[in-house]
């Protein structure tokens, strides 16, 4: 089947030309990927009474999933299905705008909050390989008005996103309190620790259909850097994979579910994950990230430390951590944004 290639915002057609083909040992090796019956699916309607008599069944399930996987799906989360469908539709429309319209968000300035970019990786002797995706990133906020930062095209983008952000804000509060209780802490503890002004950003990844997903990668293996992410993926299109005990598992979309992903700063397991392209259909994922701000001091929570449980980490500010991270291993773990490909 002939496909018209997707046109990246920098006006490059996304094709299986050498710029987009991975060296053999970096390819996804899809025949080795296991189906994922094992990623927990947690029903937020599960029995949850906070009676001070130890964790409720829901809290136990969440804390077990946090500990074992750092990755799980939630259903019955009370974010309306229609709203999820609407936000996916409007973000898809954004990626389907003419490239010159998306190009206004290309930037070389890393501090820009609203931007379109393409991930790439650099390989010795080969140079740069651009990933099979395009990414749009911008801030969000559950209560403040942030929508003046967002595109006016598609016309419903701002309104739909504002509504979605409010709903996700409520969900984050609930998740942080469930996770806090799972740690035996009071329910506001994690939220308080992450800080008054968390960094809140959205990362929307669009993965056009790919004639041969074996040759490319949508988003290479990485761990998220912040604390927690709520990911919405379009139904019926696979692509997300998570590594567990050295094996890649698919995280297939479950209808009306969110994927919850704990990132480095929660000090649970932060699971390596990646996304591969789909042969037949474009795929969209929309991640809402909740990150400590630069001044937040991150360190072991005092209530969890005693003689038998000495701290495993020292205290540091998030900014300090990020600087050290980029010095040491940022290049290995977080793929770079392909600024050079831009006009
Ligand atoms: C991310 C991410 C997964 C996906 O943006 O950090 O892991 O399915 N996205 O696009
Ligand atoms: Ni990620």
TrEMBL record:
Q: Which keywords does the record carry?
A: Iron, Metal-binding, Oxidoreductase, Vitamin C
Q: Which residues lie in coiled coils?
A: none
User: What range(s) does the Fe2OG dioxygenase domain occupy?
Assistant: 198-292
Q: Which domain of life is it from?
A: Eukaryota
One Gene Ontology term of the molecular function aspect: L-ascorbic acid binding
Family to which this protein belongs: Belongs to the iron/ascorbate-dependent oxidoreductase family.
Q: What is this protein called?
A: Protein dmr6-like oxygenase 2
Q: Which organism is it from?
A: Quercus suber (Cork oak)
